[in-house]
Design brief:
CATH architecture: Alpha-Beta Complex
Number of helices: 5
Distance between the termini: 32 Å
Number of domains: 1
Order of helices and strands: HEHHEEEHEEEEH
Number of strands: 8
Shape: globular
CATH topology: tt1808, chain A
Helix content: 25-40%
Largest sheet: 8 strands, mixed
CATH class: Alpha Beta
Structural class: alpha+beta
C-alpha cells in the first residue's frame, strides 16, 4: 500500500490518528497580494485546466505557480520538490510519490529535514486526496523525527488548482479544515501557505 492507496479510515486506524474538523482555522491569517507575474501566469494557465484536463496539467499550470510565488515571498528559504519520490517506511505504506513537498532546508539535490508542507493536486474531488495527503504528512513527521529535526506541526493541502483545502498534523491529531478556498481568494491562499512554511 502506497500513499495513494489509503482510505480515510485506513490511515486513521493504521497510524492511530485522531481526526478533528475545524470550521475556519486559517481565516484570520493576513492575506498576501500576488505579484503581477503570478496573476499573468494564472490568467494564461487557467483556460488550460478547464474541463477534462489531467492532474498533471493542473499541477503545472496553477499549483506549481502558486507554490513558486510562496517561495519567492519567503526569499527562497524553502525548496519546492515536484513529483518527488518520498519513501519513508515501505512496511507501513509510507512510500510513493508526492505531487509537491516543501522542505525548509535550501538544498535542492535531495530532500532534507524538516519537511513542512505536502500538497496533493487532484483533478476533481478534493476529499479523495485527503487520505493520501495525511499519509504523506505522517511520513514527513517520521522523516523529520528520524533526521533529528522534528517540528511541532506538519501541514498539508489538497487542491485541484482552483479550490484549496488545508490540513495540519500535530503529534497524532489531524485537523481538517472544512473551509474550501477558491482561486479567487488567492491572497488568502498565499497568506496561508506562507504562514505554514514560516
Amino acid at each position: 500500500m502506497a500513499y495513494e492507496s489509503f482510505k480515510l479510515g485506513q490511515v486513521e486506524e493504521r497510524f492511530e490518528l485522531v481526526l478533528v474538523q475545524t470550521g475556519d482555522a486559517y481565516g484570520q491569517i493576513p492575506p498576501i497580494e500576488p505579484s503581477d507575474l503570478l496573476m499573468g501566469t494564472l490568467r494564461r494557465g487557467r483556460p488550460l485546466v478547464v474541463g477534462q484536463t489531467s492532474e498533471k496539467a493542473r499541477s503545472e499550470f496553477i499549483v506549481a505557480q502558486v507554490l513558486l510565488e510562496m517561495r519567492d515571498i519567503v526569499h527562497d528559504s524553502v525548496v519546492v520538490f515536484s513529483g518527488i519520490k518520498f519513501d519513508v517506511d515501505r512496511k507501513e505504506g509510507l512510500f510513493g510519490y508526492c505531487d509537491f513537498l516543501i522542505s525548509r532546508d535550501a538544498i535542492v539535490d535531495e530532500i532534507k529535514a524538516p519537511v513542512l508542507l505536502l500538497t496533493e493536486a487532484k483533478k476533481e474531488d478534493l476529499s479523495s486526496g485527503i487520505p493520501q495527503c495525511i499519509a504523506e504528512m505522517v511520513a514527513a513527521q517520521r522523516f523529520n523525527d528520524r533526521k533529528k529535526k522534528p517540528i511541532e506541526t506538519v501541514y498539508g493541502s489538497v487542491t485541484d488548482g482552483t479550490r484549496w483545502r488545508f490540513l495540519s498534523l500535530v503529534d497524532k491529531t489531524v485537523s481538517l479544515d472544512l473551509r474550501e478556498y477558491s482561486i479567487a481568494e488567492l491572497p488568502q491562499i498565499l497568506g496561508i501557505l506562507v504562514y505554514m512554511v514560516s
